[in-house]
């Protein structure tokens, strides 16, 4: 740990942007722990007992049972419903304008003090149980990440991950089974217009919330990550002061994923073994012209800011 402070790398950005493979790749580094989307732990795991990335129900996973014992004295030692209620009071997208003012930030901090206290206990317990010096949290929500960064004893860094909004919108349309539930469920789907609006708002919010701490913020395009994984990993490790860590690459374009203990996220979190990092351009051939035009029009200012072509080649 850094001076006794728990080091957290928070992945911010819209879903379907490649955060799962990136976070789980980072989790292969010695001393790193990929926790998945910890903002959902109260609902999906403590209450619903969904699967850990290792394949075991959360309440039966040997890692998470030890973490919960360390943090709260057991699964029943924290009021998960109260934590969910507090999340609605201060860590949603609608709270971002309030968080951008000093007085507003102070007011929200007071409103969700218990949530921040318990989240801090959770991070510290993860570090203690797993022996990790860096915890990777891929919750992605900007407002949630910013409030978590208020916890006093965290050494908190933000990796702002961006993917071409048309690729993300195409992914949001896919019907993907969610294997971590007892009943047959599918990942949430949204239409291209809503996806584009969220892409705009979440990416704008991430930049605005962390503009006062540029030394703890790194923006990375997913397309650049898969094009040059080595350089991307090196930039991330430099951000968090872990330059001496061994990169999680089996070759220049391949990572080998071990069993993870992610609590929530894309079904890809269950994958193990060799994974080649390569661009995914399926959307260029299969996305309808109408959907592509809608997303391009709605995201045009940020498309240019993030150096995406307005008319990419098919």
What does this structure look like?
It is a single chain. With 314 residues, this protein is of the alpha/beta class. It has one domain. Helix content is 45%, strand content 13%. The chain has a 5-stranded parallel β-sheet with strand order 2-3-1-4-5, sandwiched between helices. The chain has a two-stranded antiparallel sheet with strand order 6-7. Helix 2 runs antiparallel to helix 4 and helix 3 crosses helix 7. The longest helix is centred in the middle third of the chain and has 18 residues.
Keywords:
314 residues, alpha/beta, 5-stranded parallel beta sheet, two-stranded antiparallel ribbon, 14 helices, 45% helix, 13% strand
Continuous helix count: 14
Mean pLDDT: 94
Strand order of the largest sheet: 2-3-1-4-5
Query: Low-confidence parts, pLDDT < 50 over ≥5 residues?
Result: none
Distance between the termini: 47 Å
What is the tally of beta strands? 7
The amount of beta strand, in percent, is 5-15%
| Largest beta-sheet characterization | 5 strands, parallel
- Return the structural class: alpha/beta
Question: What portion of residues is helical?
Answer: 40-55%
N-to-C SSE series?
Answer: EHEHHHHHHEHEHHEHHEEHH
> How would you sum up the global shape?
globular
> What is the radius of gyration computed over CA atoms, rounded to a whole number of angstroms?
19 Å
Number of domains: 1
């Amino acid at each position: 740990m850094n001076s006794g402070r728990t080091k957290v790398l928070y992945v911010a950005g819209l879903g379907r942007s490649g955060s799962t493979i990136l976070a789980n790749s980072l989790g292969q580094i010695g001393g790193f722990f990929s926790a998945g989307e910890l903002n959902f732990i109260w609902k999906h795991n403590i209450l619903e007992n969904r699967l850990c990335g290792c394949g075991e129900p959360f309440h039966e996973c040997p890692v998470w049972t030890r973490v919960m014992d360390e943090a709260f004295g057991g699964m029943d030692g924290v009021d998960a419903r109260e934590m969910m209620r507090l999340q609605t009071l201060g860590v949603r997208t609608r709270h971002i304008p309030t968080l951008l003012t000093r007085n507003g930030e102070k007011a929200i901090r007071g409103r969700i003090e218990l949530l921040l206290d318990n989240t801090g206990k959770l991070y510290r317990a993860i570090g203690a149980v797993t022996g990790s010096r860096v915890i990777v949290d891929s919750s992605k929500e900007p407002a949630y990440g910013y409030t978590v960064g208020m916890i006093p004893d965290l050494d908190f860094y933000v990796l702002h991950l961006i993917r071409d909004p048309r690729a993300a919108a195409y992914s949001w349309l896919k019907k993907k089974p969610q294997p971590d539930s007892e009943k047959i469920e599918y990942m949430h789907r949204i239409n291209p217009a809503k996806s584009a609006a969220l892409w705009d708002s979440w990416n704008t919010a991430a930049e605005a919330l962390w503009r006062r701490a540029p030394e703890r913020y790194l923006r990375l395009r997913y397309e650049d990550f898969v094009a040059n994984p080595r350089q991307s990993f090196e930039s991330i490790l430099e951000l968090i002061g872990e330059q001496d860590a061994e990169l999680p690459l089996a070759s220049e374009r391949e990572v080998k994923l071990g069993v993870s203990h992610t609590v929530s996220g894309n079904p890809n979190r269950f994958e193990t073994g060799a994974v080649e990092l390569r661009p995914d351009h399926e959307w260029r051939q299969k996305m309808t012209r109408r959907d592509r035009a809608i997303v391009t029009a709605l995201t045009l200012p940020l498309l240019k800011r993030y150096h995406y072509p307005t008319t990419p080649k098919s």
